[in-house]
UniProtKB/TrEMBL annotation:
Species for this entry: Acinetobacter gandensis
Protein name: Transcriptional regulator
Single GO term (MF): DNA binding
Biological processes per GO annotation: regulation of DNA-templated transcription
């Protein structure tokens, strides 16, 4: 643990930097680069000055649990014990920094409740400013936010350590775990503790995902079973994608219509496809109705969930190409059109210029993002002129 005098001096130095409207290179170097960038984004986010707690979402009672929530059910007692023994509050957030589970020691419980560092609390940077949950998801690496490095004054007495929670099979970030206490208890081992808690959850994910099917449908379509790529035909991937979108199951006739539409393909051909899939998947493919029995996740389902929650950054990262670009399935084509329409609408309503700039850098042909950036960027900004030229000559 650092000496109290050192911590006090660190806090005072941060406060001096906070008072400045802009930071020189030398002053900037005194801060972690990611903190300085976060301060800048927070200042532009129009966060209400009187805000003392994160906006609170009601917890849906009938929603389908995610893989992360299933894993938390397996390791909740161990995480609660860690929070209580360390005099900390421990919170797990989803990919949009909304807390989905928390446990608190007696010492931190009242403070956590007062700022909504509890299930339902929305800790997105554009809502509450600099904080470890949002910073870890933004940088995709562990982070510490000390005392008045936080944007909201109501958490200036806190120090927070956060680490990403990574899917063991797909290597995608599923969420973030945060350990928080008062700044006077700051410890250089705090980040290691957060990473250890993330590994506990990842072990629980492995246990839960013993029969785990993951479908990638953007860019190069691919199906993974327990982390291993399966050798499947494009048609078989289409069938699995349809069944993933219809978890209640489908009759043979309904599946035939969804897959082939009006094309003259016999029912017998589809039966043969299903027979081959059953040989490959074993007990994972149910019949009457046809349905997937394994734990199913997919990049397109995660993108849809991200849009439902208003997490544009996550949705854009997941939509890394055209959804099943070569499919002729009327069902899948209609679903793709719907997703692209929702994505364009979210871009049209977006206010985060850094998110849109990253998207345009990855996909220069994304004219909807270019047009939205032109609306958001000041007319005298150098990037504004570049965007105008790009729109005229894509």
């Amino acid at each position: 643990m650092m000496m109290q005098q050192d911590l006090l001096e660190k806090r005072q130095n941060i406060e001096r930097l906070r008072q400045r409207t802009s930071l020189s290179k030398q002053q900037n170097s005194q801060l972690n680069e990611s903190i300085a960038s976060s301060w800048q984004r927070s200042a532009q986010a129009e966060i209400p000055e009187h805000r003392v707690a994160a906006p609170l979402l009601p917890i849906p009672s009938n929603s389908q649990p995610t893989a992360l929530q299933h894993a938390l059910q397996h390791c909740a007692d161990e995480l609660k014990h860690i929070a209580q023994q360390s005099s900390m509050v421990l919170a797990v957030g989803d990919v949009g920094s909304t807390i989905i589970w928390s446990a608190s020691s007696r010492q931190m419980q009242s403070a956590a409740e007062s700022v909504h560092f509890i299930a339902g609390g929305q800790w997105r940077e554009e809502l509450v400013g600099t904080n470890a949950l949002a910073l870890t998801l933004k940088t995709q690496q562990s982070s510490c936010v000390f005392s008045n490095e936080h944007y909201m004054p109501s958490v200036h007495d806190w120090v927070c350590y956060a680490a990403p929670i990574i899917d063991p099979h797909t290597r995608q970030i599923l969420g973030v775990i945060d350990l928080s206490t008062v700044w006077k208890n700051h410890n250089s081992l705090g980040l290691l503790a957060a990473e250890r808690c993330a590994s506990i959850i990842q072990s629980a994910l492995l246990e839960f995902q013993k029969q785990h099917l993951y479908i990638r449908a953007f860019s190069v379509p691919q199906v993974l079973f327990n982390g291993k790529v399966m050798v499947l035909t494009p048609r078989q991937i289409e069938i699995l994608t349809i069944l993933a979108l219809c978890p209640q199951g489908m009759t043979l006739d309904t599946l035939h219509q969804a897959l082939y539409g009006e094309r003259k393909v016999s029912i017998g051909t589809l039966k043969a496809e299903m027979s081959q899939l059953r040989d490959i998947l074993g007990g994972m493919l149910g019949s009457r109705p046809y349905r997937l029995l394994a734990q199913v996740e997919a990049d397109f389902l995660q993108a849809e969930q991200a849009l439902d929650a208003g997490y544009l950054d996550s949705a854009l990262k997941l939509c890394s190409g055209i959804f099943l670009a070569k499919t002729e399935s009327p069902f899948l084509c209609a679903w793709r059109d719907c997703l692209e329409s929702r994505l364009s609408q979210a871009i049209f309503n977006a206010k985060e210029t850094d998110v849109l700039l990253k998207h345009v850098a990855r996909f220069p042909e994304a004219i909807d993002a270019v047009e939205r950036l032109i609306e958001l960027m000041p007319g005298n900004h150098p990037i504004h002129q570049t965007l105008l030229k790009f729109k005229q000559h894509p």
